[in-house]
Predict the structure of Large ribosomal subunit protein bL35.
Amino acid sequence: MPKNKTHSGTSKRFKITGSGKVLRERAGKRHLLEHKPSSKTRALTGTVEVAPSDAKKIKKLLGK
């Protein structure tokens, strides 16, 4: 049987922790930052856990 390939777009966007949680970066911090308040751009910093409904689909794309 052939091996399943990891979805390359998904692998660049998501990370799976040791305990199996799926992490993602927050959206809205790439461009057009000049008119956004600094409080908003600071709030968008860091990683957050993916919603459980999406986590199952993402894990399948990553082959986990």
Summary: The beta strands are 14-16, 22-25, 47-49.
